[in-house]
Amino acid sequence: MLIGKKTVRAAIAVAAASTLAGGLLTGCSAPASAGTITYLTHQDAWTHADPQRNYTGRDIAWFGSYMNRTLTAYDRAKGAAGSAVVPDMATDTGRASNGNKTWEFTLRDGVTFEDGKAVTCEDIKYGVSRTFATDVITDGPTYAIGMLDIPSAADGSSAYKGPYSTDASNDVASFDKAITCSADHKTITFNLKRPVGDFNYTTTYLSFGPVEKAKDTGDQYDMHPQSTGPYKIKSYVAKSQMVLVRNTAWKADSDPLRAKRAFPDKIVVKFGLTEEVRDQMILNDTNKDAVSLDALLPTNLTAVFDDKGNPVAKYASRAINVYDPYVRYAAFNVAKLNCLPIRQAIYYAKDFTSLITLSGGQALNGDPADGVIKPLMGLDYKKVTGYEDWSVNGNFDKAKALMAQAKTECPALYARATDPKQGITYDIADTDTNKKASAIWIASEAKAGIVMKFNFIEAGKYYAVVLDPTKQGDMSAAGWAPDWANASTVIPELFTKEGGFPLSQNWDDPAYAEFKKGVDAALVEPDRKKQGQDWAALNQYAMDQMWVAPGVFSKTQEIWGSGIGGAFFWDPQGSLSFGDLYTK
Amino acid sequence: MSGLLTYISRRLMITIIILLAVSFTVYVIFALLPYDPAALTCGKNCNDPGIIAANRIRLGYDKPFWVQYWIFLTGLFVGRDFGSGAAAIHCDAPAFGYSFQQHACVTDLLGQALPVTVYLAIGALILWLIVGIGLGIISARFRGKIWDTLSTAFVLVGTSLPTFLTGLILIVFLVIKLPGSPFPADGYTAPEEDFGQFLLSMVLPWVTLAFAYAAIYTRFVRSQILEISTEDYIRTAKAKGLSDRMILGKHTLRAALAPIVTMAGLDFAGLLGGAILTEAVFNLPGMGRLSLTAVVDIDLPVIVATTIVAASIVVIMNMILDIVYAFIDPRVRV
Q1: Which of A107, A183, A230, A507 could form an SS bridge with A497, CB 3.0 to 4.6 Å?
Q2: Which is it for strands A266-270 and A424-429: parallel, antiparallel or unpaired?
Q3: How many A×B Cβ pairs under 8 Å?
Q4: pTM score, two decimals?
């Protein structure tokens, strides 16, 4: 997951008995099905509301909680329990066969769209088909394209181009074979091109949700998707507000996940608020039933959190500071920087302390990362070794020694890296903080004799530029979060040629062939524990090759009004569990 | 009468030519910008040159500039289709284009934004005319006295404070810090949704916008009145023994109002293009915010449309004022 996924770990929805006790003792009330929850955001609109275009954890958590159901979902629980996959529209979490290449799901009874039409297998199939229309249904996850057993066209793209294509070569037949429906329209079968042991994690994506063909309006569906959940859109005007009201066609007994949790009668999202106004409204509790969808401005963080990152007393019950799912790093463009000692020297000469202080300190921004898999990943994480002499303040002696080694092993690149007129080019988004960070990088790398030059790219176009191999510099700032609790959504995405975010361009590295073999084996490994060990080993391998310079295991903060109950951080989506919020 | 009709016809023709020239100029400017409109239609998938090429053809961006402009012009009268097949998008006339970033026909976006700006501009106009003319009269009438001094201070503050700062000050002290404040901080409520809430959501934006304009109008009205007061016919009126109040009401103000009406008309027209800062601070989804976000997001069809609409409003308002003058003053028709 490339952008927007935020994390938290926090307060908790309380069990009925303890809530009652708490209510008696403190005056708190049990969750009631009433009230209006108001979300505040600086954004002018949702990035996307179309289920096939939802991709960030926060957006999936929000729409998945209120409107858009899919086959499976993450359990609504805090901590590790929240990462468990549970059935949503399906009766179970899926049945695999054919060596994990065939997956079957059966739909529950009573699942309907907001117009009352029953959701069928064909609706889900149609929804998934929209994923293939990458010219219209943009920005969404494309796992269906990568996994379903559909041949590729000559240019490497899928031979199936989605439901809108009028091209005669559109391979509809292959798609029809890849997804089949039972005669009673209740069971959907996915035929995959390779074994995927955790395909039921993939189906937690809303892109595997249904769309009613007759209601599909292509690009415009983004403004009014049909609900299958407890709420539906009453109005949605960008730069103004979205209003959700109860979906009267929704049947609670068809939805155990949301049945006892659809608390508010109305949900309002206020878009386009000035950041300072948004923060002040929340900090001053102007609307007690409000929740901020955004992070606080750095200048306001100190009003809420102390030096250790804990909420100050005033906000103790309505703010949290937790690790998010992201790992921030600097990707080395190995095609250009094909010299391991130089890549390592750059890492050793990095002044982490100054960089993190610039961003507000470790307590609120995170810890030094040792790879691209975060400890939160549990099974897949193992501490990376071999860099014990790396220091948060920079180990310049080591960096110099590596540069000396580079002088003999890769003299041409060494000459460029130390030439004041050339140097190493670092791509980074054009922001005030990054400009200050660049000065820290330049100063610390200079201590190892490395000349660092910065290529500031307009923030909105940053990834479009650096993902173009012809435009990418020697290094590129990046961040990545797993799409679900499996490093199969990290290691292959970042370090294989077929991956979705291959900024390292490492496929011509002599070490790549062995790495790729390991990735291919790990992807089809049926034993999840063994697979986790494989990912940890591949993370170590990637760090041994220094394909990225690890940055930060980052943190995020969430804050809500004093009238809101039930808030907790939903680890797998990296956001509050919106569907559990209620007005006190 | 035929002279007046001829004048109006001529004025209408000129307005149409100007509007065509404006639309063409805006279209040329944006055609010359270093952005590929097709590459702005497919989000992160726009890393794929194949998709960009397909969208370029699908949306007609592969056609010569003249053809594209002609399609744009005809779309204003007959509507327009974008793409083909099941994902085709139809925008009714007057079709200004389709925003792939906002997933809506641009005309619909204008239809949502323009009323908000009209409400803002009308409320502010009424407020600043009342305050500006009132204070201007008082200031002139009591020249050199305390009222004049206070009025001058008001003018100084009003013209010095940037609109966004006035707005933020009002929000902080009258919304966030004021316990039980009736004013909402979280934006706009449409009048058809809740008229009372609409009024409450507009009071502070009206005050903010009117504050700056009222200051300017106070100064303008004061100087107009003082200037007219030195005219011969005012002296004559005084010599005839008319009271100051009578002179002010019957002669001075009447003469001063003509340029004020012109100025107010043009200011109002300008505001209909969008009061960007006021709308941004108070989170009003009007023309100003629509233009601002379109520029930031490089949403070319919206930029073209808002520019043309804003320019058209000014041109049409000028035409209306000219015609009104022609009614009032026959010399103008010549």
Answers
A1: A507
A2: unpaired
A3: 116
A4: 0.82
